[in-house]
């Protein structure tokens, strides 16, 4: 025993061994680790593991205990077409005017019904919001036939058939050079007006900034003289296609001073959003529907019908009401039905793609 205990250098380890000796137990298998330093008296005790480290090939594996990733489980579930109880809708449409949203698919309405529902919320005994505004929230499809090419954001001004007060009057810069047009710009109440040479000098000297104006209009006889201002105005630069370059100064002023300008915002490269004011809650539904139709026609002109429907969804909101009524977009937006596409539009879509 003395020879066996010669490897023990620590009192605690000695007590462990002594306990086994007193009980006549089998001593544990010891493996002494001798430290090269004389003062080091550490010892490592290893217990023999009776379990095999390698699984026998004949042993059957329990499939329930095999790890399966969440993605693989989802694929298997979709392949079997398994639907949980929480995903089962009670019906396609509720039978009452009050229902729990999660138990039914999103309900779609006509534009007239959506406006009536909002008007009911805006009554004096409810939200008392008859002077509030209706807004349209649209999701736009900016994709083309090429997967790597997308349509840019759109910005346009439209003159609605039924006007309503919204925001403050826009600041408009007028570029003209004839005495008649200069006098007309003054009588219309233009924020700033003058000849192209005068406006260029004011911008160069820092007296005015293009950022101070929401719109820039110019008469057609100044087309060549305003070319040096292209880098200053960028998207606001007058062009015939935008309607801000014409000889009809009064018509341009009426459009941009009394019209409603909308501008989209990108959500992703291929999808965007657009919000426009539709009218006052107290306006007749017939007038609001005509404004709605004007907006839809104007927005859809920015993308060829050969590429499919431009507007993916439309919601009608009336803050501060939290309700958002989804419209049946396929009834109002071209491209969802089998419309005939002109060959010129198809060629233009392919050229744009």
Q: What features would you describe in this structure?
A:
The chain is an alpha/beta fold. The protein has helices at 11-22, 70-80, 111-121, 179-188, 196-204, 230-233, 249-258, 285-300, 343-352; strands at 30-31, 44-45, 108-109, 133-141, 155-158, 172-175, 192-194, 215-218, 260-263, 265-266, 271-280, 311-317, 324-327. It has a 6-stranded mixed sheet with strand order 3-13-12-4-11-10. The protein has a 3-stranded parallel sheet with strand order 7-6-8, with helices on both faces. Strands 1-2 form a two-stranded antiparallel sheet. The longest helix has 16 residues, at 285-300. One of its GO terms (cellular component) is ribosome. Belongs to the universal ribosomal protein uL1 family. Keywords: Ribonucleoprotein, Ribosomal protein. This is 39S ribosomal protein L1, mitochondrial isoform X1.
């Amino acid at each position: 025993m003395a020879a066996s205990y010669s490897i023990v250098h620590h009192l605690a380890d000695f007590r462990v061994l002594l306990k086994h000796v007193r009980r006549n137990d089998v001593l544990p298998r010891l493996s002494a680790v001798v430290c090269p330093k004389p003062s080091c008296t550490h010892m490592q005790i290893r217990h023999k593991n009776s379990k095999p480290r390698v699984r026998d090939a004949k042993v059957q594996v329990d499939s329930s205990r095999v790890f399966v990733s969440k993605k693989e489980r989802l694929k298997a579930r979709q392949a079997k077409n398994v639907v949980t109880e929480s995903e089962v809708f009670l019906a396609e449409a509720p039978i009452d005017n009050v229902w729990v949203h999660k138990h039914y698919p999103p309900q779609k309405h006509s534009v007239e019904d959506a406006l009536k529902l909002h008007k009911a919320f805006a009554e004096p005994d409810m939200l008392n919001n008859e002077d509030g505004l209706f807004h349209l929230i649209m999701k736009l499809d900016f994709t083309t036939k090429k997967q790597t090419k997308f349509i840019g954001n759109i910005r346009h001004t439209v003159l609605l058939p039924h006007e309503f007060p919204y925001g403050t009057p826009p600041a408009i810069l007028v570029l003209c050079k004839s005495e008649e047009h200069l006098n007309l710009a003054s009588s219309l109440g233009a924020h700033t007006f003058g000849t192209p040479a005068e406006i260029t000098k004011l911008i160069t000297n820092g007296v005015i900034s293009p950022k101070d104006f929401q719109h820039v209009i110019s008469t057609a006889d100044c087309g060549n003289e305003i070319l040096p201002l292209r880098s200053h105005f960028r998207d606001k630069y007058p062009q015939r296609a935008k309607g801000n370059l014409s000889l009809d100064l009064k018509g341009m002023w009426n459009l941009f001073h009394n019209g409603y300008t909308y501008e989209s915002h990108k959500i992703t490269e291929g999808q965007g959003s657009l919000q426009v004011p539709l009218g006052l809650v107290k306006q007749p539904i017939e007038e609001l529907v005509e404004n709605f139709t004007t907006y839809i026609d104007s927005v859809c002109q920015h993308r060829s019908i050969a590429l499919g429907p431009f507007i993916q969804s439309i919601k009608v909101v009336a803050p501060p009401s939290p309700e958002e009524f989804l419209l049946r977009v396929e009834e109002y937006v071209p491209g969802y039905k089998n419309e005939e596409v002109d060959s010129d539009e198809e060629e233009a879509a392919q050229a744009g793609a």
